Amino acid sequence: MPSVKVATKAAAKAKKPTIKSTDPKRVAEILKRLEKAYPDAKCALHHNNAFQLLVATILSAQCTDVRVNMVTPELFKKYPTPRDFAALRQEVLEQDIRSTGFYRNKARSIIGTAQHIVKEYGGKVPQTMEELLTLPGVARKTANVVLGSAFGIAAGVVVDTHVQRISRRLDLTKHEAPQKIEQDLMKLIPQSKWIAFSHEVIFHGREVCIARKPRCAECPVEDLCFSKDKTV
Q1: What is the DSSP secondary structure assignment for residue 178, as one 8-state letter?
Q2: What is the pLDDT of residues 158-170, one digit of tens each?
Q3: Is 20 a catalytic residue?
Q4: 46-49 long-range Cβ contacts below 8 angstroms, 24+ apart
Q5: Burial of 129 (0-12, 13-18, 19+ CB in 10 A)
Q6: What's the confidence (pLDDT) of residue 1?
Q7: Closest C-alpha to 141, from 113, 127, 121, 161
Q8: What per-residue confidence (pLDDT) applies to 232?
Q9: Residue 126 main-chain phi, psi, to 5 deg
Q10: What pLDDT is attached to residue 78?
């Protein structure tokens, strides 16, 4: 009769995945299930145009989308165009966005971005990654948000904290740096899915795969996830 120790080892071995984590069939199944679970997933930042989304995304750094959405309606009512923002004194904008945190850096970036857009692009938000990255305070995440949600351009994958964490949980990447994670995801996921994937994973991270206590029993990809801290 086998010992308990041997039986336990056998059981553990049986639970190990028999398919490579980056296998195209596994990745396709993850994408299929996320799309089915979150068919209406979209950018949570409220905006009416590309410039508003750009400002909102800058404000969202180290701040919740809920808080940003509380601040931006009045902000955009007071300053409706890039030229209005470009003409602001930094200390004035700081008071308007104070509740979003890191308000000094954000005010500096927003005003600098607005001035650059007015001077170099005629007051219109540019539609290429290369041009967006010339704007103060804009890195790849912000540029991808604007390109994907405002223009429908899939130039990359948005890697926020949810995408960073869940991509690692699902073994879609071993990296921790956002840019390296993005490169891994761009290789695994069809370009036509880049925009939707980020929205779906962000929704998934907020509603089910919660950082402190993931609700694995409700997860649509639970059987495809081999994370060590699963709750089922």
Answers
A1: H
A2: 999 999 999 999 9
A3: no
A4: 46/72, 46/73, 47/72, 47/149, 47/150, 48/76, 49/150
A5: middle
A6: 45
A7: 161
A8: 85
A9: -65, 160
A10: 98
Q: Which tens digits make up the pLDDT trace of 103-122?
A: 999 999 999 999 999 999 99
Q: Is 15 helix (H, G, I), strand (E, B) or coil?
A: helix
Candidates 86, 160, 80, 170; CA nearest to 121 is 86
| SS3 of residue 197 by DSSP | helix
Q: At 163, list the tokens.
A: 């995408």
Q: So what's the pLDDT on residue 130? A: 98
Query: Can you give the pTM of this predicted structure?
Result: 0.90
| 3-class secondary structure per residue, 18-80 | CCCCCCHHHHHHHHHHHHHHCCCCCCCCCCCCHHHHHHHHHHCCCCCHHHHHHHHHHHHHHCC
Contact assessment for residue 52 and residue 68, using Cβ atoms and an 8 Å cutoff? no
- Residues with pLDDT less than 50, the chain: 1-14
For residue 230, give the amino acid letter.
K
Is the separation of the CB atoms in 102 and 61 below 8 Å? yes
160 is catalytic: yes
Secondary structure string (H, E, C) spanning 86-148: HCCCHHHHHHHHHHHCCHHHHHHHHHHHHHHHHHHHCCCCCCCHHHHCCCCCCCHHHHHHHHH
Catalytic residue (one of 96, 106, 141, 193) = 141
Tokens of 28: 């396709």
Spot the catalytic one: 65, 96, 106, 160.
160
Distance, first Cα to last Cα, the chain = 29
